[in-house]
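Q: Please design a sequence for this.
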């Protein structure tokens, strides 16, 4: 499961960095992960969608991710149009708001076991995943990879700027909305089985660009493979370092990912040429 989650989160991060033309973008920055977290927390604490059994958490996380996407795009459009800057600023605000909602639900939970489950889940863990969840996650990740690879030339154009992409015949607004929905579905499905895991979608795409350059037909598959290997290593480390206890995955990714990202910032500076659109 770690391989699937790592590949999907790395792909989502690479896509979002192109979507907003910002190398610091990832599912957390744009509020998608926080929205999925609210949906999952709602399921765990309130017991919503309990009739769906093991799929209740997936349904809640996916619904939260899509809600976050709708709000981010809706507010951005209401402010005057969809631009990378508006998407980032709106995403940051919505991420903070959704995180506050999750904290509110946990604080007022009357069930200590549910509170403990939510807190551990929000820090990231694959220990609760079951085999029935693996196949749907694999299908979603494979479909996302196939769709993004099919759109690699449009992604290259979008990375150069909205004006350049529009001049090349790319439907910029529709592409942005479609990419945001695709990554939201991808993140929602994966967050449901892994919880909140940071730095995978931020660091791995940078490493991929250093290795193979900026073209998306190369970046996307390398990011997927790199994310899978990184997440596999993180999961093993989380399980064996302090056995029999398990370290939350986000703790390991943060300890490893933060220094790597700082080194990358010092080694190479990524920019997306063009204006703010």
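A: Design:
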């Amino acid at each position: 499961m770690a391989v699937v989650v790592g590949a999907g989160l790395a792909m989502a991060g690479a896509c979002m960095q192109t979507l907003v033309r910002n190398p610091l973008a990832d599912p957390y920055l744009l509020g998608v992960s926080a929205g999925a977290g609210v949906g999952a927390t709602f399921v765990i604490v309130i017991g919503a969608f309990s009739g769906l059994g093991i799929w209740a958490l997936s349904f809640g996380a996916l619904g939260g991710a899509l809600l976050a996407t709708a709000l981010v795009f809706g507010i951005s459009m209401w402010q005057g149009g969809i631009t990378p800057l508006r998407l980032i600023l709106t995403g940051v605000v919505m991420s903070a708001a959704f995180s506050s909602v999750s904290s509110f639900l946990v604080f007022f939970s009357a069930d200590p076991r549910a509170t403990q489950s939510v807190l551990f889940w929000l820090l990231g863990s694959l220990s609760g995943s079951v085999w029935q969840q693996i196949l749907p996650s694999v299908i979603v990740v494979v479909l996302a990879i196939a769709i993004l690879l099919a759109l690699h030339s449009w992604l290259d154009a979008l990375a150069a700027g909205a004006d350049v992409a529009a001049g090349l015949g790319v439907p910029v607004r529709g592409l942005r909305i479609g990419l945001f929905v695709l990554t939201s579905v991808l993140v929602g499905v994966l967050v449901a089985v892994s919880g909140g895991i940071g730095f995978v979608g931020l660091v791995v795409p940078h490493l991929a660009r250093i290795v193979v350059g900026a073209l998306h037909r190369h970046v996307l598959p390398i990011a997927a493979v790199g994310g899978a290997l990184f997440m596999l290593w993180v999961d093993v480390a989380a399980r064996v370092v302090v056995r029999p206890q398990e370290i939350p995955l986000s703790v390991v990714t943060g300890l490893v990912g933060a220094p790597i990202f700082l080194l990358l910032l010092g080694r190479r500076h990524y920019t997306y040429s063009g204006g703010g659109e």
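Q: Thanks. Anything notable?
A: The two ends are 37 Å apart (CA to CA). Residues 271-276 have pLDDT under 50 and may be disordered.
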